[in-house]
Automatic annotation (TrEMBL):
CDD domains named in the record: ASKHA_NBD_HSP70
Keywords: Stress response
UniProt key word Transferase: no
InterPro entries in alphabetical order: ATPase_NBD (IPR043129)
Name by which UniProt lists this protein: Heat shock 70 kDa protein 12A
Length: 601
């Protein structure tokens, strides 16, 4: 427990949860802000199956399911030897690395990375819901045991608590919508409060807040300083560049360019070792059960010992295969049940992920960068730390790493982010816009073969044209909105406006796409485009704003409106505006993310 801020809390009772569901490990942190009391940050620990005296707050992101897809064991308890034996006897199936299934396609995937399939009949939304419910249940228990009158406080205020989920830079409104649905199903919040009470922060931004809280970094962040955060986690490496806008009365940071997110991290290192070990064991003539047992023991020994201790030096490293002293194969360097690896072989497991992290940092850096913050589970790798230091540490730039082995920076940082809101502007990761009609030009080859229609104004138009509202990499201040002006036409003065919808698309391809086509001549999205969400609003009250027009086919009615896109926090917001009687009005709008098909039961 540490002080979150100086002075006692002067606001109303408030609970804030910070949740990080990582590819390999997860954690929860929280604060209970009580009027007149100190503001403190708590890490949830004492998880089932975890030694309480060690204060470890991280648990494995794993679940055992039985043959009926009922969850039987979670987290630290699931990796206990007794649990593993029971799982083998009962035929349970282990689900791990499920975070990979939620990654959007635009995150660059390793071409040779094998995604573990989900068990038959088990949806990703159910896995996330089960795991979130487990996190919530233990957090409630821990809160009751470690906060004064904790059980009563929880019952009084948990229905209005703020829940902050951290996620990779490359996740957007679809993945956020998925997490929100799973959190509702898990019982974190009621559906009618979910939009306000569930918030999202990028893992890199949460890590910035963690580093400022747990190190002396804030003392070096003078106005005008540029720095880069590299969150090297289990499944992704996220990098973001920041500029210190001001230091007083409160620290404010701006993103300087679009953040990056690639699929490379600690799990990729494990996968390289697994491929190598499998090829070695295949040469021993073992039964399938014997080979699987050696794989299980060998992979765990690598992850818990060699991977953590390797710093790029050393000559030989031994991996326990569990084969006993009678397992000897000198030609494969196996002696007394242990496999010996040389330095070059171990380096080969790390190289691609290390090179990816260094390239990502270099891409984000400007000449004036003064600090590089290295965080995340893979960021604890001694070898990665040494390589980053050798590449970037010098007279003008320093490298800062986290040094708390019991912490998961992102969970702590999520609570701190919610309480402090240091980042005040962000760079958009993609361009946003909508589909519009454009006048048909029979002499333009790009128009030929596309769907055309005669509009009420008497002009023949072609569909599928891209109208950009926000360009990629735009720096947007908190609560700043960018707008595009549009109109729709109706053949009567009383059209149905109760379910008015506008579809927002995103572009994450290469090059300038400001004047191009959203769809091809077969009405399919062009490469680099994707449907992001729909804005749905009841605009029945806008009928008075309809303007009577005269076209070649007679009178019609035109409705002018604006589509506004906003990134006040890390979650995209969109709404509609219109003018009537000299006043600008904004109607309540619902943003409906494009749901992920894998998330459906």
């Amino acid at each position: 427990m540490r002080l979150l801020a100086a002075g006692n809390w002067t606001g109303p009772h408030r609970i804030i949860l910070g949740i990080d569901i990582g590819a390999t490990q997860s954690a929860v942190a929280f604060t209970y802000l009580c009027p007149g009391n100190a503001q403190t940050l708590h890490r949830v620990h004492e998880w089932p199956g975890q030694p309480s005296q060690k204060g470890q707050s991280r648990i494995p992101s794993v679940i055992y399911y039985d043959e009926n897809n009922k969850p039987m064991s979670f987290g630290a308890e699931a990796v206990l030897p007794d649990t593993e034996d029971k799982a083998e006897d009962e035929g349970w199936r282990l689900v791990r690395h499920f975070k990979f299934h939620l990654h959007p396609s635009e995150i660059k995937r390793r071409q040779d990375f094998s995604l573990e399939p989900l068990p038959s009949g088990l949806s990703l939304i159910q896995i996330y819901t089960d795991y979130m419910a487990y996190l919530l249940n233990h957090t409630k228990t821990f809160f009751g045991d470690h906060v004064l009158n904790g059980s009563r406080v929880w019952e009084s205020y948990h229905q209005d608590m703020t829940v902050v989920f951290a996620h990779p830079n490359g996740w957007g409104i679809r993945e956020q919508g998925f997490l929100r649905r799973a959190a509702i199903a898990a019982g974190f919040v009621m559906r009618d409060k979910a939009h306000c009470n569930i918030q999202f922060v990028s893992e890199a931004e949460a890590s910035v807040h963690f580093c400022m809280f747990h190190s002396d970094l804030h003392e070096h962040l003078n106005m005008g300083v540029y720095f880069v955060v590299c969150d090297a986690g289990g499944s992704t490496t996220d990098t973001t560049a920041y500029y210190v806008k001001q230091t007083a009365p409160a620290l404010e940071l701006d993103e300087t360019k679009a953040s990056a997110c690639v699929q490379a991290g600690g799990v990729s290192v494990d996968a390289e070792f697994q491929k190598y070990l499998f090829s070695v064991l295949n040469q021993l003539g073992l039964s399938e059960d014997q080979r699987n047992e050696c794989m299980r023991i060998g992979c765990r020994d690598f992850e818990e010992n060699v991977k953590k201790a390797f710093d790029g030096t050393g000559h030989e490293f031994r991996i326990n295969l569990g084969g006993g002293r009678t397992m000897n194969h000198p030609n494969l360097r196996i002696s007394r049940g242990k496999l010996t690896l040389n330095q070059e072989t171990v380096l080969s497991f790390f190289n691609e992920s290390i090179e990816t992290a260094v390239d990502c940092i270099r891409h984000q850096m400007d000449k004036g960068c003064e600090h590089v913050l290295l965080v995340g589970g893979f960021g604890e790798s001694l070898y990665l730390r040494n390589v980053v230091n050798s590449n970037f540490s010098g007279a003008r730039c320093s490298v800062t790493v986290t040094s708390d082995p019991n912490a998961k920076a992102v969970a702590d940082g999520s609570v701190l982010w919610c309480a402090k809101r240091t980042v005040v502007s962000r760079a958009t990761r993609m361009a946003y816009g909508i589909e519009v009609l454009t006048p048909y030009d029979r002499n333009n080859v790009q128009h030929c073969g596309r769907t055309t229609s005669m509009q009420l104004d008497g002009i023949e138009k072609v569909s599928g044209f891209w109208s950009q509202i926000v360009s990629k990499g735009t720096i947007m201040e908190a609560n700043e909105a960018l707008r595009g002006e549009y109109h729709r036409s109706y053949d009567n003065s009383n059209p149905s406006l109760g379910n008015f919808t506008v579809t927002i698309y995103g572009y994450n391809g290469a090059g300038d796409n400001a004047n191009t086509w959203l769809t091809n001549k077969n009405d399919r999205l062009e490469k680099g485009f994707e449907e992001v969400c729909q804005i749905r609003a009841d605009l029945s009250g806008m009928r008075k704003a309809l303007k009577k027009q005269k076209g070649t086919k007679g009178k019609y009615y035109r409705l002018d409106f604006k589509v506004a896109i906003q990134f006040g926090d890390t979650e995209m917001k969109a709404f509609l505006e219109w003018e009537h009687g000299g006043k600008t009005s904004t109607g309540p709008a619902e943003v409906l993310p494009n749901e992920l098909s894998i998330g459906s039961p």
